[in-house]
Amino acid sequence: MNQPPPDQAPPDMPVAPPKMNLRRLWLTLLLPMGLTSVFMVLIVTASSGRMEEHFLNAGMLVVGLASLICWVAFSKCIAERFAGPSLILLILAYPILQAVLVFCAFFVGCLVMIQAKGFH
To answer: What does the UniProt keyword field contain (predicted)?
Structure first.
């Protein structure tokens, strides 16, 4: 008779954390890396040296802007679930992670371009 109604949790049971939008989370994590990969493929397959430079400039500008936009979206996405020091750590770790991944994709693309076309 003293039991709480079935729709309420007992007072000593912790509340489940809210759900995150996993689609938006993965999109914000993978979009800058995917854009870098696409632009590096365009650079490697470009026919002339001038086109490679234009693709590189445009590509890195787009990737940089996408990274900033994704950083804001990532921050909003994880703020639904995390709070306090863990939220700050995740928000500050995002640009470091993206910088490492984007540079790795860029570096691999440059190595492929050197292998395909040689030094000029």
So the answer is: Membrane, Transmembrane, Transmembrane helix
DSSP symbol at 87: H
Ramachandran assignment for 84, one of left (phi > 0), alpha (psi -120 to 50 degrees), beta (any other): left
- Report pLDDT digits (tens) over 42-98: 877 776 667 777 777 888 899 999 999 999 999 999 999 998 999 999 999 999 999
DSSP notation for 13-68: SPPPPPPP-HHHHHHHHHHHHHHHHHHHHHHHH-SSHHHHHHHHHHHHHHHHHHHH
0.70 exceeded by pTM: yes
Chain centroid to Cα 47, Å, comes to 30
* 89/14 Cα distance (integer angstroms): 24
Task: Determine the Cα angle at 19 with ends 17 and 22, to 5°.
Answer: 140
